[in-house]
Amino acid sequence: MSNLICSNLEIKNNELYFGGRSTKEIASKYKTPLYVMDEVTIRANCRKYVNSLNKYFGSSAKALFASKACSFKRMYEIISSENMGADVVSVGELYTALKANVNPQELYFHSNSKTDEDIEYAISQNIGYFVIDNIEELDAINFFAGKKGIKQKALIRITPGIDTHTYEAVNTGKVDSKFGFPIETGAGEFITGEALKRENVELKGFHCHVGSQLFDSDVFVRSADTMLEFVAEMKNKFGFVTEILDLGGGYGVRYVESDPYIDIEDNIRQVAEFYKKKCAELELQEPSVRMEPGRSIVADAGITLYTANTVKIIDGYKNYVAVDGGMGDNPRFALYGSEYTVIAASKAEEKCDFNCSLVGRFCESGDILQENVNLPSSIKRGDLIAVLTTGAYNYSMASNYNRIPKLPVVMLNGNEDYIAVKRETLDDIIRNDV
Ligand code: LLP
Fold first, then answer.
1. Tens digit of pLDDT for each residue in 23-81?
2. CB 3.0–4.6 Å: which of 241, 377, 400, 404 could bond 354 by disulfide?
3. Residue of 46, 70, 279, 363 with catalytic role
4. With a cut of 50, which residues of the chain have pLDDT below it?
5. Does 23 contact ligand 1 (Cβ within 6 A)?
6. Among 170, 207, 289, 327, which residue has the most ligand 1 atoms within 8 Å of its CB, making it the best to mutate?
């Protein structure tokens, strides 16, 4: 028996069910390898944020989907129908959101390295907010907004100097981060003064994001504390009234049984309680809050289904089970050593006493989906294997390494199922070759 880490998973008749549906049926209808996502779970996750933010921070608070976690047109349609805006980090994400008819005023453009073309394009599309990361960007926004004859709304990304003890690749709140302006060195104050001098930029407030896959319950309280102190300093120094404070994203999700569970609603309640107290103490008008969850909106709303191709036993050493996908559809173990729960979806009630490495079909030894996986000893070619909690940063980080076509995304919605992203074909692979 395998451990089930999310409430949308069940085991019945020796088979894994996801979103109430038979994984064997979905796999035979759409073929593997396949991303399967559950719209019901995505919407429930969106509502958790939207409702808690409104309940505890008031109706002006807004949840933005950090769309780098999972970006395709249908995702933007779902989140905007749930009253969420979105954070985009490239013109590719921006374009996808616009094609999904998201109101551009609800979009926040991040990135630490925007080109002039990116900036001019976003302004031409009437984007709501830029999140300014550096002085060159501030000047370019001022220039292109002036050219269009508008005043462009913006937030400034501040580095609050908080170490979140998550993995290095996602630890972004420390002073030496490549993102944003540190408070500690005076850079935050400097850029605020500069932004207030730019006549085509309308500074609305500040942003921070300290990390990802976070479980420490006080992280958002600590960043709110530091950021509100900064807001108060900017008021004293420049008479600047902060209208918007974006606390970023980062709540963790459960990939494996040993991961903790975080009650997001209760955590938001605690942050709001602190926020109101702190604003009163500092005699601040409460800035309207934004939060930018990515992973916790989509991670548990996705699984990946694979078919086992080969079982290789290297006597006295180790065992491998190789599937029909791998690092091209999920590079997270190769990049971060990320843990996942793996289940033999078509043999889900069998005893798991065959220890192996679950590997992919890509031509490199680092193509590992997970080490130390226990599968039934009867596992063989043709069996269905599910990797759980793959809804975030899997589709969005996929590549065509080895010219292997990208997987489709099939969306479940109760008894319905539909293709949200088509499977790439071999012709797609050569489409830009001349
Ligand atoms: N806001 C900003 C400015 C961010 O940089 C991020 C994530 C988020 C929000 C959303 O954070 P989340 O709620 O998803 O934790 N590829 C890595 C994750 C990179 C996260 C980058 N920034 C992974 O697969 O774990």
1. 999 999 999 999 999 999 999 999 999 999 999 999 999 999 999 999 999 999 999 99
2. 377
3. 363
4. 1-2
5. no
6. 170
Measured from the CB, is residue 209 less than 6 Å from ligand 1? Answer: yes
CA 178 / ligand 1 centre spacing (Å): 14
Does the C-beta of 340 come closer than 6 Å to ligand 1? no
d(CA 32, CA 367): 18
Per-residue confidence (pLDDT) for residue 202, from 0 to 100: 98
- Asked whether 275 and 289 are in contact (CB, 8 A), the reply is yes
DSSP state of 434: -
| Contact call for residues 191 and 181 (beta carbons, < 8 A) | yes
b/e code 226-260 from CB counts within 10 Å (16+ = b): bbbebbbbbbeeeebebebbbbbbbbbbbbeeebe
- Strands 384-388 and 342-344 come out as antiparallel
CA-only gyration radius of the chain, Å: 23
Q: How far apart are CA 42 and CA 297, in angstroms?
A: 6
Do 10 and 17 touch, CB atoms closer than 8 A?
Answer: yes
| Among protein residues, the one whose CA lies closest to atom 18 of ligand 1 | 170
Burial 192-222 (b: 16+ CB within 10 A, else e): bebbeebebbbbbbbbbbbbbbbbeeebbbb
Whether 226 and 183 have beta carbons less than 8 Å apart is answered as yes
Classified as helix, coil or strand, 152 is: strand
Judged by DSSP in three states, 209 sits in coil
**Residue among 396, 397, 291 at smallest CA distance from 65:** 291
Tokens of 183: 């408070």
